[in-house]
Amino acid sequence: LFLLFFSTHEELKTLDVDDVFFSTPEDIAARALKPQGGVDFIRTFKKQTEDQAVNLPPNLQELVQNASYVQSPDHLVWQYFYDLKGSAQYPFPGGIFQWARYRINGTGLNETEKIFSESLNKHENTLTLATLRIFSNGLGQPHFHFNANEMGYVISGCGKVGVVASDITANFNIDIGDVIFFPVGSQHYIKSVCDEDLLLILAYSTGNQLETLRMNDYFHKTADHILAQLFFKEQNEFKKILQASK
Q1: Same domain (yes/no): 159, 106
Q2: For residue 194, what are the domain limits?
Q3: Among 154, 202, 237, 244, which is least packed by CB within 10 angstroms?
Q4: Which SUPFAM superfamilies does the record match to this protein (predicted)?
């Protein structure tokens, strides 16, 4: 079972091997593949009524005798593969992140992580992936991303989500199998409300280093006299936020 993310906002266009083969004239396929028997061999192929991208032959064991693969060298494998579950954990108050992402500063990355990180940045419209685990009653605090849309899929647990965009505010519940979407620049939060942890897979539409700003960061870094004017509260009141953060 795979969960797939595709980096396009348009309708996904896909061509399968069998579709291409059966769309190619028999004589052209014979000249290209040069099989024993020539075009007569090509004519032995019959297009199935069902799409073979999602349906396996009922006699699969008869057709396949050997499905072994030879592992490619690391410099090739890790351009396309990343052991996310086995990677470093990044805890925060209320949960844990694990990242498969591009990082500008590769300090601390092992050699295979560097290969993957550099590969992401070489390709247009790649994705940064992560797993987010929020402990029971924990909070992924309000934040937004400067340079990426975000999609998520709920693997386990349940939670509450809030989204604040330029023209709308939305709050809703999420459960196993739900997909969530946060447009670039929209502030959002996720809270776990079940007895078990809330676990999600997240995808960000950027091959560059993800840029994020959290609510506690922009409150702490905004001058308290500016906050006093915005919220009509005494300037000293905002020292309570700074003290609480410590």
Answers
A1: yes
A2: 75-210
A3: 244
A4: RmlC-like cupins (SSF51182)
Which pLDDT tens digit goes with each residue over 126-169? Answer: 999 999 999 999 999 999 999 999 999 999 999 999 999 888 89
Q: Is residue 96 predicted with pLDDT exceeding 50?
A: yes
Same domain flag for 206 and 220:
no
Residue 170 in tokens:
């939305």
* Domain identity same for 131 and 222: no
- Domain holding 112: CATH number? 2.60.120.10
At 189, give phi and psi (nearest 5°): -140, 160
Up-side HSE of residue 140: CA atoms within 13 Å toward CB?
A: 29
Alpha carbon 65 to its chain's center? 35
Q: CA-CA distance, 32 to 30, in Å (whole number)?
A: 5
Same domain, 120 and 29: no
**Using only C-alpha atoms, what is the Rg of the chain?**
25
- The reply to whether 129 falls in a domain is yes
Task: Indicate the pTM of the whole model.
Answer: 0.86
**Mean pLDDT score across all residues of the chain:** 92
- Tell whether the model's pLDDT for residue 246 goes beyond 50: no
